[in-house]
Write a structure and sequence with these properties.
The chain is of the alpha/beta class. Helices cover 31% and strands 25% of the residues. It has two domains: 3-34 and 270-378, Lyase, Ornithine Decarboxylase, Chain A, domain 1 (Beta Barrel); 35-262, TIM Barrel (Alpha-Beta Barrel). It has helices spanning 3-9, 11-22, 35-51, 67-76, 86-95, 110-119, 129-142, 172-180, 209-223, 239-248, 264-268, and strands at residues 30-34, 55-56, 81-83, 99-102, 124-126, 146-153, 167-168, 185-191, 196-199, 204-207, 230-232, 252-253, 277-287, 290-294, 306-310, 317-322, 332-335, 344-347, 359-364, 372-378. α1 (3-9) crosses α2 (11-22) and α3 (35-51) runs parallel beside α4 (67-76). The longest helix has 17 residues, at 35-51.
């Protein structure tokens, strides 16, 4: 999906991936992250948001909940992490980074609420009154007032399978009344997901119906006396989305794939952010007319289509990829080429590292011609090397 753009705009990363494999520095099933370009992308996105007075919570689950990268973003001045679930919250809490939002897609388990509240997170997203009551109780025990965001949904809004949740906007008045009765909660804003998505027909990122619902909910909250709201409108947040947000509404985004230049828009056009992640594998064997490379990092929505096979970018052969079927474990990727066992394989596709068993290899110095591996992490943010 991103291979051509990555070669075109960040060939040094592809070349280093082949070099690292040839030298035996990196095992197959490794995602390699160009930290210099990641940092540059993040700086551009943050500058665009600051110019419009917007907040940004960064999302790193797609990069394996990596605490090294989280610390970079913290130091840069981002408004904290948005953690996709409670396990990611634990990783970021262990790393001591600021958490801007927790609970949006996955609510906090009861046994962990006290730890999260005591840690000091900026916002907790709610989509059940029962969970709100438990958070209120723990906030009272900690002697604080916890800011909360209300996740709303309206008729016809998009909700991905496995993420079904939200307060119906038609019930928002009742929800607000219930939350106002909890003395240690403060209604800080409203959110939904996804508010923006890439549209292949338009060739651009476009608003979804969820954005309309969020803006309507924010207006309702203001009419009920709740001002200075966080109007969180995530998905595909990058410099392009921030420009649209300024026109269409919202004041808070959540860059994830934007940080690595790998939103669907980045696959088809040159945007401000450059791609900075590749997947490195190795030819394992040949069978039945196909060559097979080690797997482990496949994501069912990866849209993987091609790979470079060889020992260097200059000599590599481009091959069509036959990914495993969705119901199968991704032990291997098929390659429509005849390659020697042990050759390097470099791909660039849509990834969600936290649902894989891959390594995350962080590389600094590519921008100045002195690349070095500064850390190897597992897919859940634990340092291995």
């Amino acid at each position: 999906m991103f291979l051509d753009k990555t070669v075109e705009r960040n060939g040094n990363l592809v070349e280093f991936a082949f070099d690292a494999h040839r030298q035996g520095l990196v095992l197959p099933d490794s995602y390699m992250v160009d930290v210099d370009t990641f940092t540059s992308n993040a700086s551009m996105i943050l500058d665009a948001a600051r110019a419009k007075g917007f907040s940004l919570f960064y999302m790193l689950k797609q990069l394996g909940r990596n605490p090294y990268l989280a610390t970079i973003l913290d130091d840069m001045g981002y408004d904290g992490a948005v953690v996709v679930d409670f396990r990611e919250a634990a990783v970021m809490m262990d790393a001591g980074v600021r958490i801007g939002n927790v609970g949006h897609l996955v609510q906090i388990p009861d046994s962990m609420i006290g730890d999260v509240v005591s840690y000091g997170v900026d916002n907790i997203t709610l989509y059940s009154i029962e969970k709100a009551a438990r958070i209120d109780q723990e906030a009272r025990r900690a002697g604080i007032v916890q800011s909360v965001l209300i996740r709303v949904t309206g008729e016809g809004d998009m909700i991905y399978s496995g993420q079904t949740a939200g307060f119906d906007i038609a019930r928002l008045g009742d929800v607000v009344k219930a939350l106002e009765g909890m003395g240690n909660l403060r209604i800080a804003g409203v959110t939904s997901f996804p508010c923006y998505l890439y549209d292949s027909v338009a060739g651009d990122i476009m608003p979804t119906g969820n954005l309309k619902t969020v803006l309507e909910a924010a207006a309702m909250l203001e009419s009920m006396g709740h001002g200075d709201l966080v109007v969180n409108t995530p998905s595909t947040t990058c410099t392009r989305t921030i420009a649209m947000m300024g026109e269409l509404g919202g004041n808070c985004g959540e860059p994830g794939h934007g940080l690595t230049g790998t939103t669907p828009l980045h696959a088809v056009s040159d945007q401000a952010e450059r791609p900075c992640v590749v997947y490195l594998s190795e030819v394992s064997h040949r069978f039945g007319g196909l060559t097979y490379a080690y797997g482990g990092g496949h994501y069912r929505r990866s849209h993987v289509s091609s790979a470079l096979v060889g020992s260097s970018l200059e000599s590599a052969v481009k091959a069509h990829v036959v990914p495993p079927s969705d119901e199968s474990i991704d032990y291997h990727f098929g390659l429509e080429t005849d390659a020697e066992v042990g050759q390097g394989v470099v791909m660039a596709f849509r990834y969600q590292i936290f649902v894989t068993r891959s390594d995350v290899v962080l590389v600094k110095g590519l921008s100045c011609g002195r690349p070095e591996i500064v850390g190897v992490y597992d897919a859940l943010g634990r340092r291995r090397v």
